[in-house]
Specification:
The complex is a heterotrimer. By secondary structure, chain B is an all-alpha fold. Chain B contains 13 helices and two strands; from the N terminus they run αββαααααααααααα. Chain B has a two-stranded antiparallel ribbon with strand order 1-2.
């Protein structure tokens, strides 16, 4: 087990700069998720840590060792791939034990360790089978068994669940979480699915265009995103965004929208100059049907266009100021309703830079 | 069995559907085989009246024909000595090209070139290279002091078959390479990366992962190699014409010699029957033991 | 898989289509078909043009194959009863094999050249037509077009430069070796990978040791194991052991390898027949072959010490038969006669392809005095003297002899063992 540190890491492919000056410290035993849209550099970062890609600049340190220029096999890491990458000609037992065999572990010891891993992962019944005779979930577990059996310093996961169906994904998510609690091995987990990241990770690294946008606990990212990008990426359904202009900023922060309707954020965001354009961000769960407690200037009204019942709750699409807002509450299509805004939970972003104001 | 899907008794339709294939099979496979088996029981020049001689051709073949024995010996040598080196060399070249040679396509084309050259040209060129009287190898041999290169490769009855086999390997290694390149390209990248991370050295990656995962390519090459062995004709015909004194004789070349030059169609038929039995046995062996999973079929 | 054949077929088809569209065949024309391995296409084309000009109303459809392809083609045509009108043949076994498909041609000969037609041919040409006949069958199943001798040649400038004379005896050849081998020149350059070339040398050896004996062995009145045969075989082996024949000869084909080396000046002497003259008439010949300036023919040196015979071996190079089933026998006979002695023959002889079978046809143009002298030597001195055939009758014996020559030369068999296998082959083909 070890810490992982990325110091000013760069990666260029030809003239394309894929990763720029990445700094990241991962504590021993921590579970960190790298998230971001495709092409953001999360997989490249993982592959550089694994040693499958070289670094163009900077250093990668695992434990106390600078591994930047060590081959993959000398980094003492294990990786689970999206495709599982099992050896099709080997049985499950051989697949799991292969890394040990390469390191010259005694045959009887290999059998013990493989057995142990198979026990943990409920693979005992299929140890003699070839990968093509297994279900998707079983293959996934074999890939994990292969990683665990060597007790490496770091686990790397590259979108390990995206080839599974939704139900199995939820199940495996829990498995992985349980496993990490048991083994407490430092884990770096790449996913494009923010739910996976939120549920699994101690800390989440949001990446965009080869840079780290924000690092923090799921709670921090959800509550205090540093940018519109992070705000939009974390949370489901996505945060609502509305363009507006500040018209009165002395005592309260009042916004005017394109259609002339207004909203006062009260004292939450005072100090912005009048006439400044801003982007208002508000999560669906922070909108509610306006009641007597909601001041008149903290309401947005519109017509319900679509409802999406989810069972436990319902999402509605409301047309406000010419834009569609999603809210987590119940209504009927065609209703004209007033939405109360939880003003302390509203976010303002600079429309040009996307940064939180 | 459900009545609706069972053919109604007396219906001709199913038979009509297989009729064309059956007719072609009978005309181009069954009939010639029976014809050859039948001919092998005669003394016959292929044109004029034949005399029935029963098993005489076979008796002569197995008891009085040193050329036939040499042809069989050569087939036995030919199969492993061409197939294995072609596989190993072809794989080695393919692997090197696949892992980090710029302008890979050019090298592939160069290595594949011999396979598309006419056997006539190959025969002429290699006779010239092997010729100890002013040929390339002997010139190099005399200039460098490597005297083994000055051996009369094609005229020494003990060496000639290996010299011919070497030419075959030269000619077909590029073909093996091409199949291996295709096979390597088809290997999942992540699996190879997994091996890398698990600690496999280059040698271990090749031995434990890459080579076993190319099983379908190996099987294809073995199948084609065995078929090639039994069909070896043009190269030998051009390079040595089976000589000297049948030292490089192949069954097809010997069949041609007997059937047409020596006007012994009956005897040639007997050799053909033997060749057919060998081919059949090998095919059964391949399907049963190796399994008929080949690159081209997958 | 022989793709070249399929390609030939396709191109021939395309060619035929082009010809048909360009030159509509007159409905009254008779097409005479001809299949052969010799002469080459270019020569055959010239012959066809000349003959068609002389015989209005006759078109000649010809196709030339490699020899092995030709015998397969002929075999297939015989089996499917689709023989061409005119069939290229060799004397002996090949003619015998197809005898039932061939028309006796003495009538055609009489019609073409009169009752004394035989006297108008060189004697060997008439004699050897019936080499393959069953005893008692007096028919002529083909008419000879080209004849040949087998002999030796020497390369004039090579000998001159080394200060040597053409060898007359084995000792002469032996003495040449040390003077030539250092220069990379073979005293006798042999493409011994080809069975016929080995056999041609042996035929000249046995002709020196015991003239005529091998034909008796063929008839069963002598044995191939008799001392003279073993002696000739021993000389053959000595030619290799003494370095007279170049190293690696058994792995070298006559065409094109040995011929290229010869034309490159690497041969002091070499066994080839009268056909070597045609080297001069190919387009852009190498320097030695230009106008045949570099070569002169000679008889095989005496290897016995008892003197060499002054008659070379020879035979019919090409003869042509007419299919029994031909629907145009008269036309085919006219074409054949023209190729033997008419305008077509003149075109053929002009190429120096080989020697004529019919007396009195000479090339119209000589490129050099040497070429003329060589031609005259062949046609006026040697050809009339030929008594013995270059060919053997039985393919099996021929093959056995060729195998034995390779086995003895490579050291796998002794000369006596080699001849024993020939005798055994003779015995088994007789049964």
């Amino acid at each position: 087990m070890a810490t992982v540190e990325l110091r000013r890491v760069d990666k260029t492919f030809g003239t394309h700069q894929a990763i720029q000056g990445l700094d990241l410290s991962i504590a021993d035993g921590e579970f960190v998720a790298l998230v971001g849209p495709s092409g953001c550099g999360k997989s490249t970062t993982l592959r550089m840590i694994a040693g499958l890609e070289g670094v163009s600049g900077g250093a990668i340190v695992i434990g106390e060792r600078d591994v930047s220029h060590l081959p993959a096999r000398d980094r003492d890491i294990a990786m689970v791939f999206q495709s599982y990458a099992l050896y099709p000609h080997m049985t499950v037992a051989e697949n799991i034990g292969f890394g040990l065999k390469l390191r010259g572990t005694r045959r009887s010891r290999i059998a013990e360790l493989v057995d142990e891993a198979a026990e943990t992962l409920q693979l005992k019944e299929v140890l003699g089978r070839k990968p093509k005779e297994l279900s998707g979930g079983q293959r996934q577990r074999v890939a994990m068994g292969r990683a665990m059996v060597r007790h490496p310093q770091v686990f790397l996961f590259d979108e390990p669940l995206s080839n599974l169906d939704a139900k199995l994904r939820v199940h495996m998510r829990a498995q992985i979480k349980k496993l990490h609690r048991q083994l407490t091995t430092t884990t770096i987990y790449v996913t494009h699915d923010q739910t996976e990241a939120m549920t699994l990770a101690d800390r989440i690294v949001v990446m965009n265009h080869g840079r780290i946008e924000q690092v923090g606990t799921p709670h921090q990212l959800y509550g205090a995103p540093v940018s519109k990008f992070v705000a939009g990426f974390i949370g489901s359904p996505e945060m609502n965004f509305l363009e507006a202009v500040v018209d009165e900023a002395a005592a309260t922060c009042d916004l005017t929208f394109a259609d002339g309707s207004r909203l006062s954020l009260g004292e939450a965001h005072v100090g912005l100059p009048a006439g400044r354009p801003v982007t208002l961000g508000i999560r669906p769960e922070h909108l509610h049907l306006a009641g007597p407690g909601d001041p008149q200037d903290a309401r947005l009204s519109g017509v319900v266009e679509v409802i999406e019942p989810l069972g436990a709750d319902t999402l509605i699409h409301v047309i406000v100021a010419g834009r569609t807002l999603v809210a987590r509450l119940a209504a009927e299509v065609g209703d004209r309703i007033a939405l109360g805004v939880d003003r302390t939970r509203a976010h303002l972003f600079d429309p040009a830079s996307g940064l939180t104001l | 069995m459900s009545m609706s899907s069972a053919p109604r008794s007396g219906s001709l339709a199913p038979y009509l559907f297989v009729l064309p294939a059956t007719v072609l099979f009978v005309a181009y496979v069954v009939y010639p085989i029976l014809y050859v088996i039948c001919s092998s029981a005669y003394r016959w020049d292929g044109i004029n009246q034949a005399t029935f001689t029963g098993l005489a051709n076979y008796i002569r073949l197995f008891t009085h024909d040193p050329a036939f024995v040499l042809a069989i010996r050569n087939a036995v040598l030919w199969a492993p000595l061409t197939i294995l080196p072609q596989m190993l060399l072809g794989f080695a070249i393919a692997y090197m090209l696949e892992t980090g040679v710029p302008r890979q396509a050019i090298y592939q084309a160069i290595f594949y070139l011999p396979a598309i050259i006419s056997p006539v040209v190959v025969g002429i060129v290699w006779q010239r290279i092997y010729n100890p009287f002013g040929g390339l190898l002997s010139d190099i041999g005399f200039a460098s002091g490597l005297r083994f290169l000055t051996v009369p490769f094609l005229s020494d009855t003990k060496v000639a078959i290996y010299a011919v086999i070497a030419v075959n390997v030269w000619q077909w290694t590029g073909f093996s390479m091409l199949l291996y390149v295709a096979g390597l390209k088809g290997l999942p990248t992540e699996t190879l990366e997994a091996a890398k991370i698990e600690g496999a050295t280059l040698r271990q990656t090749i031995v434990y992962v890459v080579w076993p995962m190319l099983r379908h390519v190996h099987l294809t090459l073995i199948l084609l190699g065995v078929i090639g062995t039994l069909q070896t004709f043009p190269l030998i015909y051009m390079l040595t014409n089976g000589g000297p004194n049948h030292a490089t004789e192949s069954l097809p070349n010997y069949i041609f010699l007997q059937a047409f030059k020596l006007q012994s169609m009956g005897y040639a038929s007997a050799i053909s029957v033997v060749l057919m039995v060998i081919a059949l046995a090998l095919s059964l062996f391949q399907v049963r033991v190796l399994g008929a999973r080949f690159a081209l079929a997958e | 898989m022989d793709l070249s054949k399929a390609r030939d077929g396709a191109s021939l088809f395309a060619l035929a289509a082009v010809l048909m569209s360009a030159q509509p065949v007159n409905a009254a024309d008779t097409t005479v078909t001809f299949r052969t391995w010799s002469p080459i296409v270019e020569t055959t084309a010239k012959m066809a043009v000349a003959t068609e000009a002389k015989l209005p109303g006759i078109k000649i459809d010809y196709k030339i194959f490699n020899y092995p392809d030709y015998i397969v083609d002929l075999h297939t045509r015989a089996a499917s009863d689709d023989m061409p009108d005119l069939i290229g043949l060799e004397p002996g076994a090949l003619t015998r094999q197809y005898q039932d498909f061939l028309l006796p041609l003495q009538d055609c000969a009489v019609k073409s050249w009169g009752a004394d037609w035989k006297s108008k041919f060189f004697p060997l040409a008439v004699d050897q037509i019936r080499l393959g006949n069953v005893k008692g069958d007096e028919n002529y199943y083909a008419l000879p077009v080209l004849t040949q001798t087998i002999n030796m040649w020497y390369t004039i400038p090579v000998l001159k430069e080394a200060g040597l004379q053409p060898p007359k005896s084995y000792d002469d050849m032996l003495k040449m070796v040390p003077k030539l081998s250092g220069k990379g020149i073979a005293t006798m350059l042999v493409g011994a990978a080809d069975g016929w070339e080995r056999r041609d040398v042996y035929m000249q050896l046995i002709h020196n040791v015991a003239p005529g004996l091998i034909y008796k062995a063929e008839d069963g009145t002598a044995k191939f194991t008799d001392a003279p045969f073993v002696e000739a075989m021993t000389v053959w082996k000595k030619l290799f052991d003494d370095g007279i024949i170049q190293p690696g000869a058994l792995g070298l084909s006559v065409s094109p390898q040995a011929m290229e080396l010869t034309e490159g000046g690497r041969a002091a002497t070499f066994p080839q027949g009268a056909w070597w003259q045609q080297q001069a008439t190919r387009p852009n010949p190498p320097e030695l072959s230009v106008a045949l300036n570099g070569y002169a023919p000679m008889l095989f040196p005496d290897v016995t010490g008892k003197g060499r015979p002054n008659d070379p071996l020879g035979g019919i190079d090409l003869m042509i038969g007419i299919s029994k089933k031909s629907k145009h026998v008269d036309e085919a006979c006219k074409v054949l006669a023209d190729w033997v002695s008419g305008a077509g023959a003149q075109e053929l002889i002009n190429t120096f392809n080989d020697l004529p079978a019919f007396k009195g046809i000479n090339p119209q143009v000589y490129q050099s005095d040497n070429q003329k002298a060589v031609w005259t030597l062949f046609t006026e001195e040697w050809l009339p003297k030929v008594r013995y055939a270059r060919q053997l009758k039985s393919p099996a014996v021929k093959q056995a002899l060729e195998d034995a020559l390779a086995a003895v030369a490579s050291g796998d068999q002794t000369p006596a063992q080699g001849m024993a296998t020939v005798q055994a082959a003779w015995q088994s083909q007789k049964n």
